[in-house]
Amino acid sequence: xxxxxxxxxxxxxxxxxxxxxxxxxxxxxxxxxxxxxxxxxxxxxxxxxxxxxxxxxxxxxxxxxxxxxxxxxxxxxxxxxxxxxxxxxxxxxxxxxxxxxxxxxxxxxxxxxxxxxxxxxxxxxxxxxxxxxxxxxxxxxxxxxxxxxxxxxxxxxxxxxxxxxxxxxxxxxxxxxxxxxxxxxxxxxxxxxxxxxxxxxxxxxxxxxxxxxxxx
Length: 216
Fold this sequence. Notes:
Elements: H1 3-13, H2 17-28, H3 39-46, H4 63-97, H5 100-104, H6 109-122, H7 126-129, H8 141-146, H9 151-175, H10 180-185, H11 187-215
Helix pairs in contact: 2-4, 3-4, 3-9, 4-9
């Protein structure tokens, strides 16, 4: 079994608000772990009659709390990345990315450079948009820290992006009927599909706003 498979097995037996928060913090840091195998299964459990957390069995699991605790975890992981980037600086961050341990975390200087380029192109709002993009989601907090982005703005955009992303994942949990293996296998495709849908929605509202402004 792979590292992720072992974590999924453990999570299935220890599902709780604490484990949701912890795993989403890991997902949002530089350690590679897909949020698609954390929120959807918990949301599926929440949708069952008389559902309970696996490790407690004495109170119902609420989908809104799943989203909120998942978002809290995402913020914690993002703040860790941000803080380490501010504290260590660009040189050490890049050296770590190219180190053996960095490679075990699926990091590389090329990935950090890609995240920095995306941050420079989109600005502070990239910490929101980046939450929906595979390969950028876990790393966007690093260039935010390296550039010393305003911490209040960083928290706001991170919260907003993580909250919306977790709402989408929670909805998928109901639709996927608890198929963790299916969610895991197609996690990348799900991320791309969600990004495309969000992009089309943004284009729609922008075009609609422009047409309205033209008429006025």
